[in-house]
Structure formats: structure tokens, C-alpha cells
Amino acid sequence: VGSAASFLVDQSREQSIILQPIGSDAEVADALPSADRRPRVTIVVVGETARAQNFQLGGYARETNSELKRRDIIYFKDTSSCGTATAVSVPCMFSVYGRKDYSHAKALATENLVDVLRRAGIKTEWWDNNTGDKHVADRIKKTDLFK
């Protein structure tokens, strides 16, 4: 009963949050005219529950990322999570806040990286094959790969 009451109070507080914009001056900068450019595609794979110490791409001796190793990818090894739960770590990764300053309420009240990319004119979509975007992609097209 206590948990249910807490949940309802939190939900009512979230309804009154006013979203604050960030990165309103963001734009795509290109040196080449659009006719001379090939389309660019960037795919960000979020594996927030994976342990970096067990990633071959990060130096782990055992082969754990054989398919990724064969591709021209960038592996960011200097990253950390804001929490051990997906509901905390995913919104934090896309927020402007670091681990020390992050809170659920701040994340809901502030636009995130996805919003900035969209505003800059970059076609941005969220494709999900797990437990959802945790409000990160509330304002863009979403595709659930398991529906």
C-alpha cells in the first residue's frame, strides 16, 4: 500500500513538470555542399547493463564482441553509469547531467540529447528491443522491435 501511494504521488508530481530546453543553438555544421556529401548514419547501441570489464573492444582478453570487432565502430571506454537499474542509467546517459548531479526529476524537466539532435535537424529515431526508452524518446518516433 505504501509503495502504491508513493508511486501515485510521484506520478502526480511528474504531471506538473515543465520541460526546459537545452542546446537551442545546436545545428549541423558541414564543410561540403549537400550535393557533394554522402548521407551519414550514426547508430548508438546502448548496452547499459553490460560490464565494460568484459568487453573485448575495451581490452578484455576473451572474444566477447567478435561481430563488432569486424566493423568500423567507435568504442567509448571512458563511460560510467548513474545507477544499476535501466530506469536510472538510460535517462542519465542521454541527459546533460553527470552522475553526481543526476536525478529522475531533473531528467524529466530538461530536454536530452535526443531532443537536441532532433532540433538541429537530424532525423532521430529510437528502436527498442528491451524494456523501453524510459522517457528519453518521448518526443521522437519510436519502434518497438518485439511488438
UniProtKB/TrEMBL annotation:
Enumerate the InterPro entries for this protein.
Answer: Alkaline_phosphatase_core_sf, PEA_transferase, Sulfatase_N
Which Gene Ontology MF annotations are present? transferase activity
A Pfam family name for this chain?
Sulfatase
Signal peptide coordinates: none
* Domain Sulfatase N-terminal positions: 42-138
> Which Gene3D superfamilies does its entry note?
Alkaline Phosphatase, subunit A
Q: Which UniProt keywords apply?
A: Transferase
Task: State the PANTHER family in the record.
Answer: INNER MEMBRANE PROTEIN, PHOSPHOETHANOLAMINE TRANSFERASE EPTA
Please identify the protein, giving its name as recorded. Answer: Phosphoethanolamine transferase
